[in-house]
Amino acid sequence: MYTVIGTVGSRTLRVLWMLEELGLEYEHVRAAPRSEDVVAFNPAGKVPVLVVDGTPITDSTAIITYLSDAHGRFTHKPGTLERARQDSVTQFLLDEFDANLWTAARHSFILPEELRLSGIKNSLRWEFERSQHTLIHRMSEGEFVTGDDLTVPDIILTHCLDWALMAKFPIVEHRLSEYHARMRSRPAYKRAVARRDG
């Protein structure tokens, strides 16, 4: 049994969604960042945390990569060109999508007010839009980012697109909007999101 620590309105959603896609049993501890439940496993106070046999794993990408590797699903085999492409797209999404959204969040409500720079969000939105154009050229012709099967970067991208809409970062590529709607219609995604109200 896995234990997931973190709130659904965070990157914890990525972990819950992966577990739902895998059809695995898990306990979900709805703990906020920097709370005692989180700090007990991650001194940085960040969520999500996955506890496996008493050992904590932190960072949503590390967690969902571990889960997909451990269960042999939603990933390509390590050491293959397909896995290299998958990992390359994952890193692109973290650098160009997740990082911009996280920086915007930090300057909106995370950093002390005197350290926030409201004007930075204009340049971050510009970068986010430019990155969408680049991603479209890197996406496969299949239903998912890297082909005909759901993989780790699909979970990251969908979560980032969710986050973008909440942060008022426009999705300017029609193909990404269609992709986003398709991913959000997956039963496992819906089950993970429903935990927000649980």
UniProtKB/TrEMBL annotation:
<feature type="domain" description="GST C-terminal">
    <location>
        <begin position="79"/>
        <end position="198"/>
    </location>
</feature>
<dbReference type="InterPro" id="IPR036282">
    <property type="entry name" value="Glutathione-S-Trfase_C_sf"/>
</dbReference>
<dbReference type="InterPro" id="IPR040079">
    <property type="entry name" value="Glutathione_S-Trfase"/>
</dbReference>
<dbReference type="Pfam" id="PF13409">
    <property type="entry name" value="GST_N_2"/>
</dbReference>
<dbReference type="InterPro" id="IPR010987">
    <property type="entry name" value="Glutathione-S-Trfase_C-like"/>
</dbReference>
<dbReference type="InterPro" id="IPR036249">
    <property type="entry name" value="Thioredoxin-like_sf"/>
</dbReference>
<protein>
    <submittedName>
        <fullName>Glutathione S-transferase</fullName>
    </submittedName>
</protein>
<dbReference type="InterPro" id="IPR004045">
    <property type="entry name" value="Glutathione_S-Trfase_N"/>
</dbReference>
<feature type="domain" description="GST N-terminal">
    <location>
        <begin position="1"/>
        <end position="75"/>
    </location>
</feature>
